[in-house]
Write a structure and sequence with these properties.
Layout lengths: L2 H31 L5 H19 L4 H7 L5 H20 L6 H16 L5 H35 L4 H32 L11 E3 L2 E3 L1 H20 L1 H10 L5 H17 L3 H9 L12 H15 L7 H31 L11 E2 L2 H10 L14 E2 L2 H11 L5 H11 L4 E2 L15 H8 L5 E2 L2 H11 L13 H18 L3 H6 L1
Antiparallel strand pairs: 1-2, 3-4, 5-6
Helix pairs in contact: 1-2, 1-4, 1-7, 1-8, 1-9, 1-10, 1-12, 2-7, 2-8, 3-6, 4-5, 4-13, 5-13, 6-10, 6-12, 7-8, 7-10, 10-12, 14-16
Length: 501
């Protein structure tokens, strides 16, 4: 990665620092505030397990964040991450906790607003739903756990010293689990916007493939660790003492609930297990560890009678939750304007959409959309997704968000030229020998839409075809989508530039 790539990635590192300063408080804040675990010990354990969670299990939630809005220029990714980090830093400065997840969502919406991209409202609703579900689930989980372990604790005959040692060990172990869950669930918040424009290359290490995404998530986790060490203590005190006085035992239950809730929303294995047994699944979404902790604290407080809950502090925290995405979206829009017009940096790559005859025909064949209602737009080009959706809605007012996404995916102009010299750039571990032969057979051919290339490949080999969209096929379809995105990256072609040459 060159110096320019590192400069742009620095905002992601800044956001990682902010996450460490904010969310380490959610993992170890109650333990440190009750003086059961030393701050240095908490910081070390948190740093190690956040890194492990990010690298091993952090990729799952990135897809949901990416579907909200795909930031397609590294300058835009820089501003998006910086805007979220800026909001989190300012709020941290005054000792309050905010949801970094919400700040990132607000920043992505700000980028969509500025670039005139269409925000995936289905993904937004899903993520907003978890902002409500997360503290509720955590609170409901905390009540029975606190009641159950309280009874168990009373029945076990241990000396005060033994209880103290056991509880300190439990807090550290549970904090390690919570830190792992934090890295797995929230690393997409830190560097997720850089996934489409990741400035790293894959390499092999001791026979193991280290992907660009793994490297990206590792760098993000290092930034989180620095945030933990340098600035998390003040926020730990707010979470650990500000909302409600906690006993060391209650602090342990809170950390346990936080770890479980974040793990539930990050585990691809659990999602597949539930789906394969016909059970309702939990969406893989970056959720707020802040909300999980506060939900657990409130659950215990309500169980104990709610007398010790500091409602004024809770009210301030909830206001910051509501304000964070709005403030971040506005900041992101302003910063994007400055970056583009003052510093002359490309913050988004414009997309062109066309409703040509073959595009409308493909939409008619592959979807249930009433194409005849907007066939009057045939042949028109649109310079943004919002412009296309607005035009279609004028002809077809009942257009849904899902239908709009389908039209956009077919109408987007993406030029490919299968250059023989570039075929060698394709990693053999991602493509079978037969698939590489299929691509080689297309040498010299050009395509104007991704779906056109996909159709040709589908006819050559069923292995290219997408499976029906469901949880059981999710991982396999994700792999197939990554192959197509890689083909787009390697063979993308600009006819205008070629004509000029």
């Amino acid at each position: 990665m060159g110096i320019i790539g590192f400069i742009f990635l620095s905002s992601g590192l800044f956001l990682g620092w902010s996450l460490g300063a904010q969310d380490a408080s959610n993992v170890f804040g109650t333990a440190v505030a009750t003086r059961m675990v030393r701050f240095k010990t908490a910081a070390l354990v948190c740093s190690i397990f956040v890194t492990l969670g990010a690298v091993i299990s952090g990729v799952g939630t990135a897809d949901t964040l990416g579907s909200l809005g795909e930031v397609n220029a590294i300058g835009g990714a820089f501003v998006t991450a910086f805007s979220a980090a800026f909001t989190a830093c300012v709020v941290s400065k005054i000792g309050l906790t905010i949801s970094v997840s919400q700040a990132v969502v607000g920043a992505v919406i700000g980028w969509n607003w500025f670039s005139q991209s269409v925000t995936d409202t289905d993904s937004l609703v899903k993520m907003a739903g978890t902002w409500v579900a997360c503290p509720v689930i955590s609170g409901l989980l905390a009540i029975p756990l606190f009641a159950f372990f309280s009874k168990i604790s009373k029945r076990i005959k241990l000396s005060l010293l033994q209880r103290d040692v056991l509880l300190r060990a439990a807090l550290i172990v549970t904090g390690a689990f919570g830190s792992y869950s934090l890295g797995a669930n929230n690393m997409a918040n830190v560097v997720g916007v850089f996934v489409p424009v990741v400035p790293f290359a894959d390499f092999m290490l001791f026979g193991y493939k280290v992907t660009a995404i793994h490297q990206l998530f590792f760098v993000g986790s290092v930034a989180v660790s620095i945030g933990v060490y340098t600035y998390s203590y003040k926020v730990m005190m707010t979470v650990g003492k500000g909302l409600m006085p906690l006993t060391p035992f209650a602090a342990w239950v809170v950390v346990l609930c936080q770890g479980v809730v974040l793990f539930l929303f990050a585990s691809e294995g659990l999602e597949y297990f539930l789906a394969s047994h016909g059970l309702p699944t939990i969406p893989l979404v970056p959720v707020s560890s802040t909300q999980a902790v506060i939900g657990a604290v409130l659950g215990i407080g309500l169980y104990k009678g709610s007398k010790n809950i500091r409602w004024k502090t809770l009210w301030k925290i909830m206001i910051s939750w509501v304000a964070a995405p709005v403030i971040t979206a506005v900041c992101c829009f302003i910063f994007l304007f400055i970056m583009q017009n003052v510093f002359s940096q490309k913050v988004f790559i414009p997309k062109t959409y066309v409703l040509s005859t073959d595009v409308l025909s493909e939409i008619e064949q592959k979807t249930n959309l009433p194409v005849d209602l907007f066939r009057t737009l045939q042949g028109e080009k649109f310079q943004s997704g919002q412009a296309l959706v607005k035009a279609v809605k004028k002809e077809y007012p009942r257009l849904t968000n899902a239908e709009a996404r389908k039209i956009l995916s077919y109408a987007e102009l993406v030029y490919f030229k299968i250059a023989p010299e570039k075929i060698k750039q394709l990693p053999t571990e991602m493509f079978s020998e037969e698939q590489l032969n299929d691509i080689t057979a297309l040498s010299g051919q050009t395509f104007s839409h991704t779906w056109k290339l996909q159709n040709v490949l589908n006819n050559k080999d069923p292995e290219w075809k997408m499976l029906p969209e469901n949880i059981l096929n999710k991982q396999e379809n994700s792999q197939k989508k990554r192959r197509i995105r890689l083909l787009e990256k390697v063979f993308k072609w600009d006819p205008a530039v070629s004509a000029a040459l």
